[in-house]
């Protein structure tokens, strides 16, 4: 599986899948890598159990994912599923770990389509088992057609709240409440853009009607401010933001999410230029009209380059794949223009809708300041807000110092869960990030080193005595 | 108002420069310390923290032994914690050739004063139950241990502030000139003057010495390290191998740091460096070969740092020839280990006292200097 | 084709049934097991959080090595050790 290709695509969601297909359609030798067991990414996640497979056939996302997987099977794309990319070296050499061990792939071009991660505004109790991300709910429902919990609360912001609640109803679970940071006015403001996508609007209206019929209460302009219980969740405290009034809701499971942020570890590792952009999830990678980054040979598409959502990702992926083919010399200027034209047109239209939902999902950066001192910020190392403040008092002024003074970000999530939140506490107006480093995933020693003979280790010459 | 004239200006806030600044200020000097970044963010904050004799050059053993004692007592003289743990150290031989290197090196180092002796594989396994039973023999040193290097910046920062050292972090020095009373230290936001100056720029002592017209070639090593996530105890010693290309220990909080001088890629002048996958794999294999149960764990970070080396791989610690009041300190092999003691000796010289142990003047390395 | 016959895992010595295709995390959650491990610092109970491989809260010992339960498909006879990951016992 190791070896050389014309282009490597990392991430097999809508952006990466389409990029791989576009590049391969233009004659390039394409390797497509994803840590998931099958292509689809988050939104078109492959169903894994028999039940989930049956359900996917009836669901629009499920059908689109199925179609992508079929097209990839039929195309001559080398697919490495279940392979975690942990390093990318300039030039490009991509290292990935699979059940079969470590593989090094090489190509002069690299398309990053790594998707997004969820952001959650920390609150006391968010580390309690039974508290999950909102996107976690979609992941497990898509792949396994189940949703953990009996008394569930769905909280956070954005269109995902409604989607998850409806799917829960379909599984026979009536959510105790939907807790939405947004108010009716925020949704109204988004309405015209949503209207540009009539099918989506209709689906939204149908969903709202179902929630109403089922009697699921929607608490607007409200947020979960704490979760109770020690080894298991027993309830959440919900605050109505304008009045400050708090109510308790008994729950054994909470799904909560405050929008998405690009999974841009590889972009940063390779030094692609970025710009702060809250609407795009905090930070976006700068790309030209053909999805080229500032690093020659490196392209970025989809949410990993800046959060836009599934539909724009499809078209950005197609453009990126074609651009790689064009730069490789496989397409001439006319062919490139002709092939990419439909994608560009549809991208422009999809973006209007995307921006409206991105606005609803913009992370409430200002509320970081409200976090109580004992609230855990870094989950891996149990670093609390008060620890961060003590470090700042000792002179920590950048993320690396904060890390050294507190161990924040030194655990296995490598700062993915805490980095942006800690940076917001350290310098609300700043643009601080950890220094990007490999491995961008914890590396299983076992898979990394495989079986070996001592004499095969290329031990360098001894240091002087 | 901040003052602009000092008794001593130290350029470079790594372990060497920060230690000199601290000791000098405690002796009553008015000291200013410059760093282009934050304190101890280069080699001194990113190194493996091994405080070992078994990787130290034989000539430096007497210094390293003194320094080890200082590290163990850091709470007393530094006043702050850098997480020092003193423990046994083992260097392993897996092959016949390694047995030979090990015996030679153990002999040279124990001749220099290190409490090192050769032990059988059975005894080694008693000292380190986690070790690969396939070793042929080991050398044991009773003076070994490690610090938590990433705490260096915080600990020194506190100590320096308490000692009254004026800290100028994120202030690169761009040049140096002689003035009537000593030296002008030039930075973007203006300059200061100081009667004496210490060049402690790590790998950047080469460009620093050029400010004074001195040409001392410094080789830049790009050492690569890795650390696992926290795990249940798998080992209790500092482990190495005969060739010196492994250093391995588990911190009390459970992480295992894997090092030994495998090389990454980078370039001193641009200041960039990066780890390579090939070195990561080689180093990890060596680590798992030494402690087999490490195979179960996961590496969470890999990083690199610049280490300085002179042509003869011995330190550059002493006066800058032809420039009274200018001093250099750096390029000390296993330099984190020896730093506090090297810095103490240099500070004594700066104060006009005879150093407890001889310095390593750079004259020997300069062009035109015959071999000694 | 995924067979639809139940698979048995061994979780801390006890048998647990699950469905082929499930992830290890999904299988445990379906049994009502939410707490997978203790945070290595403060020792507070933790369980899966992101279900997409990012947070590492689901990392446990699977067949002797630390793996993310949310990214690992179940296999017959798989041996799981909860709290095995990270807890400095
Ligand atoms: C990865 C790695 C692992 C190591 N492991 C060990 C170990 O286990 N045990 C051991 O004993 N030793 C180890 N070493 C060696 C040890 O870290 C070094 O010998 C020691 O830290 C060097 O200290 P220093 O103060 O000379 O240099 P540095 O720590 O590099 O400090 C130099 C400082 O000068 C500053 N500077 C440079 N130019 C300017 C300028 N123009 N203006 C202002 N400031 C400037 C820099 O920012 C830097 O902070 C290791 C080294 C590395 C890189
Ligand atoms: S639940 Fe987050 S990595 Fe598995």
Automatic annotation (TrEMBL), chain A:
One of its GO terms (molecular function) is oxidoreductase activity. Residues 376-426 form the BFD-like [2Fe-2S]-binding domain. Pfam families: Fer2_BFD, Pyr_redox_2. Keywords: Oxidoreductase. Gene3D superfamilies: BFD-like [2Fe-2S]-binding domain, FAD/NAD(P)-binding domain. The keyword NADP does not apply. Residues 5-326 form the FAD/NAD(P)-binding domain. The keyword Oxidoreductase applies. This is FAD/NAD(P)-binding oxidoreductase. It comes from Marinibacterium profundimaris.
Automatic annotation (TrEMBL), chain B:
This is FAD-dependent oxidoreductase. GO terms for molecular function: oxidoreductase activity. It comes from Marinibacterium profundimaris. InterPro entries: FAD-dep_OxRdtase, FAD/NAD-bd_sf. Residues 7-348 form the FAD dependent oxidoreductase domain. The keyword Oxidoreductase applies. GO terms for cellular component: cytoplasm. Keywords: Oxidoreductase.
UniProtKB/TrEMBL annotation, chain C:
InterPro entries: 2Fe-2S-bd_N, 2Fe-2S_ferredoxin-like_sf, 2Fe-2S_ferredoxin-type. CDD domains: fer2 (cd00207). SUPFAM superfamilies: 2Fe-2S ferredoxin-like (SSF54292). The keyword Oxidoreductase applies. The keyword Amino-acid biosynthesis does not apply. Keywords: Oxidoreductase. Pfam families: Fer2_4. GO terms for molecular function: iron-sulfur cluster binding; oxidoreductase activity. This is (2Fe-2S)-binding protein. It comes from Marinibacterium profundimaris. The lineage of its organism: Bacteria, Pseudomonadati, Pseudomonadota, Alphaproteobacteria, Rhodobacterales.
